[in-house]
Design a protein that fits this description.
The complex is a heterodimer.
Chain A: E1 4-14, E2 19-29, E3 32-34, E4 45-48, E5 53-56, E6 58-63, H1 68-76, H2 78-83, E7 85-86, E8 96-97, H3 104-113, E9 116-124, H4 129-137, E10 143-149, H5 154-161, H6 165-179, E11 183-187, H7 191-194, H8 215-229, E12 235-238, H9 248-260, E13 276-278, E14 286-287, E15 295-296, H10 298-307, E16 311-314, E17 322-327, H11 330-340, E18 345-349, E19 353-361, H12 367-382, E20 389-390, H13 404-412, H14 414-423, H15 427-430, H16 443-458, E21 475-478, H17 491-499, E22 503-506, E23 509-513, E24 516-517, E25 525-531, H18 534-551, E26 569-575
Chain B: H1 7-12, E1 30-33, H2 38-41, E2 45-48, H3 54-65, E3 74-75, E4 78-79, H4 80-92, E5 95-100, H5 102-106, H6 111-124, E6 129-134, H7 141-152, E7 158-159, E8 166-167, H8 174-179, E9 186-189, H9 193-196, H10 199-207, E10 210-213, H11 219-223, E11 226-228, E12 239-242, E13 248-251, H12 264-277
Parallel strand pairs in B: 1-2, 5-6, 9-10, 10-11
Antiparallel strand pairs in B: 3-4, 7-8, 12-13
Helix pairs in contact in B: 3-4, 3-6
Classes of the chains: A alpha/beta, B alpha/beta.
Chain lengths: ~575, ~280
């Protein structure tokens, strides 16, 4: 155990503290960043970074890395595990497998290798969340949090239909506690429930079978619930009609529906500016009305973002790899299966959600896939304010997370993009505008879109995403010197450096050295514990006793995740009692 | 009904649901089996399939669903009119589940039967909503598959001899290794291969040092050189068990184990400690 650490001559990019490439020293004591003058050099481990690029540990705001459908991906794709096999002591002490759906150990190792220290699991079905936490517990190094799926939940639907918004909010708080969840996650609102009948919803005004709520009403109510509870993150949405030509309209309509809720960002922790976060926005930015007329609508998406700072996104870039798609959007996976003929797994979850898994091969020769690739990058480059953007692939849907360094490099280097534009299908020149964009991300843009912005959006910027005093000592140092390289020209060197961090510190411990995991620490699990008025919660509890008896195959008392499943919980306490 | 005594009452047949308020009356049950069983007696339709002809029956159902004319009078012992009748029932269900048991994998055709059943479900989803679920036995076998998959990438038959997990059923399963005589020692935890494995595999088990870790005295324990009794998970010890639909359930401790009795995890930790000493 290293207690004190002094990192000298680090070239620091720390946008939350306004530091842009300053060569400075960093002190680490008891797992936190301290002023270097507090470090006793005779006792501390001293590391000379010699002007290397240094940032806070990176944050993935949306990745499918743990839980039931991720494991379905592993079970039904042994060929994916066979594609990447890592023996003992190669990347770290233990072995693992999996290219697009790595085993838990390998997930922890490969993220840490790239300097990522926080990874949020994008979707957990409440009933099966024990499984998600068991995988999180077995994932080394990373701090994580699970996003609780709520947009197709009968109990929430019933409260909303009855006009009981406060009860709905109290139930959402109960559900976050029951699942030890961090976010109200919304996937294809109404559509996944309709998939229970083999159907989907096709517009914002298309009512959910039986419940007769429309996606627009669901968005409005959930946005109000989120701000009533004062959650650190906003609602986190995956709109309807993912992946369909022409879907950019329903995407923008969904953002309008959230704005119609008339709420302002009102978190009790942090200072986020958004009222809605649209995940993997690339998949929701399509024009045309068929695959033949498919085109990029990144400009419309970016134009909206430029006008509305209350909307944030992560990219969901397609990396043109063979991968595994997995989502709580059940009807979408059926359509993907019909489209590709590849094997399909479906997992309905009683009362609350469902999911599907289908392998996918994105090919640079395919016109649609090539345009998809362009769209993710276009949105990143056309959106003026990087604080609205987070780099992601919606791992593993757009591509595996270990391709992030390539995406970062594409964004930082116009010549690198040109090299790929020549490799992909001609449609990128005709149906997209990527070839005409010359913006290049700076190191600061990179630090914002991988550290500072996700920390702020999640409401955790007091503790992660930066290197100011008091922050958790999550530090990533890369073997590249910003004053000696031109990322635009030296893109190969940049990509290589970002793939294998020179040094990664997690909670004050050195976990990665020269790209290899040298030490494993136990990650935190973030979750939100919201207090709502006691009498309201009692009423909801009484309702739940009846509802559970009527709807569920498990008893109410067996539903909630026990504390034993979180070996290192970080409970975010929110007192929302005065907000009702 | 016998293999899964709580299945029909608690989950699928008699239980009332949100959209099935009258329970049994709101549901249609079809049982397919070569013989009459307790389950077939509560079914709306019993289909007696000829032994080892499941594949043919599934293919016929798929043909009927696709509207193809079957140029036979009967398939797998089932009259063709009956096959068409069944196909209509399946297509008109609002939510259908095909549960299948070991009989389908252990009869002629084996995993190909399941392959065909998956295709049947796929075909039915073009008409309505259908899913398929395996009726698994052996308590927490699903949990074992889940844990092994997230730790190694594979659900069973994992070989670690090369330093990374490898999976090749037919080569790396326990039965494969035993029948080829490659294993020179064996530890069986919470399973009873002595009662269920093929004879050749059991013969090899008898030849080599065998350790059996199990709360119960079993045929495997009878064969073992060392038998280690452990606490019963879910009665004498807490833990997690995965239901056969992969829902993880917290198992609580109800009574204390006999004094000095370890649980599986404690026992294995002691073994690892000793191995590390050596």
């Amino acid at each position: 155990m290293t207690k004190e650490l002094l990192i000298k001559n680090a070239c620091v990019y720390d946008p939350l503290n306004g530091i842009e490439g300053e060569v400075m020293d960093l002190g680490v004591k008891d797992g936190k960043i301290v002023d270097p003058s507090e470090i006793d050099e005779s006792k501390a481990k001293v590391i000379d970074a010699e002007g290397r690029l240094t940032m806070a540990g990176a944050i993935d705001i949306h990745a499918h890395v743990a839980g039931p459908k991720v494991n379905i991906g592993r079970i039904f794709r042994p060929e994916d595990s066979r594609r990447l096999q890592v023996a003992l002591k190669k990347l770290g002490p233990r072995s693992g497998t999996g290219f697009s759906v790595p085993s838990t150990t390998l997930t922890g190792y490969m993220y840490a290798q790239m300097g990522y220290t926080t990874v949020m699991e994008a979707a957990t079905p409440p009933l099966m969340t024990r499984h998600t936490h068991e995988e999180i517990r077995d994932t080394p190094i990373l701090d994580q949090g699970a996003y609780t799926l709520m947009a197709n939940n009968w109990i929430l639907y019933e409260y909303i239909k009855e006009g009981e918004l406060e009860k709905a909010a109290a139930f959402a708080a109960w559900l976050l506690r029951a699942t030890r969840g961090y976010v109200i996650k919304m996937v294809n609102p109404g559509g996944t429930e309709a998939w229970g009948w083999g159907e989907n919803v096709h517009s914002l005004d298309d009512p959910v079978p039986y419940f007769e709520l429309t996606p627009a009403e669901i968005y409005r109510n959930y946005a109000q619930i989120n701000e009533l509870l004062g959650l650190p993150h906003s609602i986190h949405i995956h709109p309807n009609l993912l992946g369909e030509p022409g879907n950019y309209e329903i995407t923008l309509g969904s953002w309008d529906a959230v704005r119609d809720a008339g709420v302002d960002p009102d978190p009790q922790l942090g200072d986020r500016e958004q009222i809605v976060h649209n995940t993997h926005v690339q998949f929701h930015a399509y024009g045309g009305d068929s695959w033949a007329t498919f085109e990029s609508r990144a400009e419309d998406i970016a134009k909206y973002l430029n006008r509305h700072p209350e909307v944030t996104v992560d990219l969901g870039v397609v990396t043109l790899d063979e991968t595994t798609t997995m989502t709580a959007d059940g009807p979408l996976e059926w359509e993907l299966h019909e489209l590709t003929g590849f094997k399909w797994a479906n997992c309905d979850v009683e009362v609350e959600t469902g999911s599907g898994v289908v392998p996918f091969i994105y090919s640079p020769k395919n016109p649609v896939h090539s345009v998809q690739w362009a769209i993710g990058l276009e949105i990143a480059l056309l959106t003026e304010n990087p604080w609205q953007i987070v780099i992601s692939t919606d791992h593993p849907n757009g591509g595996p997370f270990h391709r992030y360094p390539r995406i970062m490099t594409w964004l930082m280097s116009e010549p690198y993009r040109q090299e790929w534009i020549e490799r992909v299908h001609d449609w990128v020149g005709q149906r997209a505008i990527l070839p005409t964009i010359d913006r290049e991300y700076t190191w600061t843009d990179l630090a914002i879109t991988t550290r500072a912005a996700p920390a702020k959006m999640l409401g955790l910027s007091d503790r992660i995403g930066h290197l100011g005093e008091g922050a958790y000592a999550h530090i990533a140092i890369y073997d590249i010197k910003p004053d000696e390289v031109d990322p635009s020209r030296d893109y190969a060197e940049v990509e290589r450096a970002l793939e294998q961090a020179w040094l990664v510190v997690k909670d004050g411990q050195i976990v990665v050295q020269e790209g290899v995991v040298v030490h494993e620490v136990t990650g935190r699990t973030y979750w939100v514990d919201v207090k709502v008025p006691e009498d309201l919660m009692e009423e909801v509890q009484r309702d739940l006793e009846t509802k559970f008896r009527r709807y569920y195959s498990v008893n109410l008392g067996n539903y909630q995740v026990q504390p034993e499943y979180l070996p290192r919980e970080e409970r975010i306490e929110i007192d929302a009692r005065d907000r009702f | 009904m016998h293999a899964h005594p709580r299945h029909m009452s608690r989950y699928t047949t008699f239980t009332r649901g949100y959209f099935r308020p009258k329970g049994r009356q709101d549901r249609t049950v079809i049982v397919v089996d070569p013989r009459r069983t307790a389950s077939s007696r509560v079914a709306d339709y019993f289909v007696r399939v000829s032994p080892h002809q499941d594949y043919e029956l599934i293919s016929a159902l798929r043909a009927a669903i696709h509207g193809v004319e079957i140029e036979r009078e009967e398939v797998a012992g089932v009259p063709v009119e009956r096959v068409y009748e069944l196909a209509e029932i399946l297509k008109n269900a609002s939510f259908g589940v095909l549960f299948w048991g070991m009989g389908l994998t252990m009869s002629r055709g084996r995993h190909r039967n399941i392959d065909n059943a998956i295709c049947l479900i796929r075909d039915l989803n073009e008409h309505t909503k259908w899913v398929l679920m395996m009726m698994r036995g052996h308590y927490n076998v699903t949990g074992f598959n889940e844990v092994l998959s997230w730790t190694t990438g594979y659900p069973y038959a994992v070989d670690f001899t090369r330093g990374y997990p490898r999976y090749n059923p037919g080569e790396t399963s326990t039965v494969d290794l035993l029948t080829r005589g490659e294993t020179d020692a064996m530890m069986a935890i919470a399973g009873d291969p002595g009662a269920h494995f093929p004879q050749k595999a059991v013969e090899r088990m008898a030849e080599i040092p065998l350790i059996c870790v199990d709360p119960e005295w079993t045929p495997t324990a009878e064969l073992a050189d060392v038998y280690v009794p452990t606490a019963i998970a879910g009665i004498e010890w807490e833990g997690t068990a995965y239901r056969m639909d992969a829902v993880p359930i917290r198992m609580r401790k109800i009574v204390d184990p006999p004094e000095g009795m370890l649980n599986d995890a404690e026992f294995l930790e002691l073994v690892i400690e000793k191995v590390e000493e050596m």
